[in-house]
Design goal:
The protein is α+β, with helices and mostly antiparallel strands. It has six helices and six strands. The radius of gyration is 15 Å and the shape is globular. The chain starts with a strand and ends with a helix. The relative contact order is 0.19.
Length: about 140
């Protein structure tokens, strides 16, 4: 499990044009890199997560927010080369559940893809809220959608 930060170039390319992508210039987000479907995803660490599309690390509403995950199409360009360091107890908690995090994110990803396809096949059904707020909406090409 790697902890990194997204580069300034990532935010130049994606930050302003894609409003759901987390962008705080004064406080960059730390992310965990996960590989699923031969793609690399950056899942941000956040506090005050109030939904179930996440992995809460230690019961205090802080953890990994799957809805704000982004596809990393160019790791050299978009991920800072220096690994980020997080508090030891958070690292221990996340590392302990590494397999569960990857499994839950993979399930989230396949559920997201299923909901997109369902929404396209049934345009009269209102789209799921997840589709409106997920950063994955900007990476449909990479997801094969």
């Amino acid at each position: 499990m790697e902890f990194n930060r997204l580069s300034a170039v990532f935010y130049q390319d994606y930050g302003t044009a894609y409003p759901e992508i987390l962008n705080k210039p004064t406080r960059p987000y730390y992310v965990v890199l996960v590989k699923v479907m031969q793609l690399t995803f950056a899942i941000p660490l956040r506090s005050s997560i109030k939904h179930s599309f996440s992995f809460i690390a230690d019961g205090n509403e802080a953890g990994l927010d799957f809805t704000k995950a982004v596809v990393i199409v160019d790791r050299q360009k978009y991920v800072e080369m220096i690994p980020a360091s997080i508090r030891q107890h958070e690292f221990n908690e996340l590392k302990k559940f590494e397999f569960e995090i990857e499994t839950r994110f993979e399930k989230f990803l396949y559920d997201y893809i299923k909901k997109v396809k369902r929404s396209r096949e049934n345009p009269r059904i209102p789209p799921a809220r997840l589709l409106q707020f997920s950063c994955l909406q900007y990476f449909h090409k990479e997801l094969g959608l």
